[in-house]
Amino acid sequence: MTTGDVTPDTDLGVTVSLLEKIAVIQQIKVPVQYRFASQDWLLEVQYFVCPATLLEAGGKSYWQFAVTSDGWALLVEAADSGGAILQKEGDDIDYLDVSLDDLGSASHLSLA
What we know:
Elements: E1 2-3, H1 12-25, E2 32-35, E3 42-57, E4 60-68, E5 73-77, E6 84-89, E7 92-99, H2 100-105, E8 107-110
Antiparallel strand pairs: 1-3, 2-3, 2-8, 3-4, 4-5, 5-6, 6-7
């Protein structure tokens, strides 16, 4: 995995849209617990990565925007205009079945 001057293989419009959504989400006071209407589990964010950091893994580019209370990175694929959220645990990257839009509309509780 590398960080820094990675060029996402996507157009500027997708990048700006994702970063705008991330910036709105990052206005919430952390640590925070999210509850989703469509899921039976909670997501706890310990802190936000500001600004979001562009990472390269497995031949894809990702924006890391948060870290969970378990210490795992929360990512969105740079080329994914839908903003599906992934979780990076060690070398494994898996989808969480929620998007940035879901996170923005989820009920949340500050744990501070």
